[in-house]
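Researcher: Next sequence.
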Amino acid sequence: MIKELIFASRNQGKIAEITQMLAPLGITVKSALELNLPDVEETGTTFAENSLLKSQTIAKAQGIPCIADDSGLCVDALNGAPGVYSARYAPNRDFDKGMDKLLKEMSEIENCDRSAHFSCVVSLSWPNGNYELFEGRVDGKIAEQKMSGDEGFGYDPLFIPKGYTQSFAQMSHDEKNKISHRGRAMAKFKAYIESL
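Model: Next structure:
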């Protein structure tokens, strides 16, 4: 059983979500932010490649298991963009500006299909190079405008999951974690850990 691992992220929103999800397993989570580790450059072209780049690099360097995730918003009308470039799509990683940019691009498309999904790949890597991958996805649509709400981060104020009228930003952490892309990937991760 894993007692301690590093989460390869400096994103405080993600760190809070992952720490909350892993608390019941009794695993101590240290983040790249807390350990002041440098960012691993995301040079992959898929969520799986980017996730693995991060977890393998840090697991080997630090000598303890590491998990990482790569996730993003994929909009049908934009041919799956911003996808793996979701963070970089936002000017200076300012997601408020990123949401404005997304809404503007969609407004220029006639009879725009608002269908979208969030994808996430969580990777778990050991210092010896072994790894596991866990995928999650949630389908939904892009709202006509940013919806109020203080929860969530990134593109959450724009994303309404299928079967709901609220955006991710309007849901409680528990509610979002049950249905989100990251929540679904982490449920598979937790089941794997419990099976060890």
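Model: The mean pLDDT is 93. The chain is about 35% helix and 20% strand.
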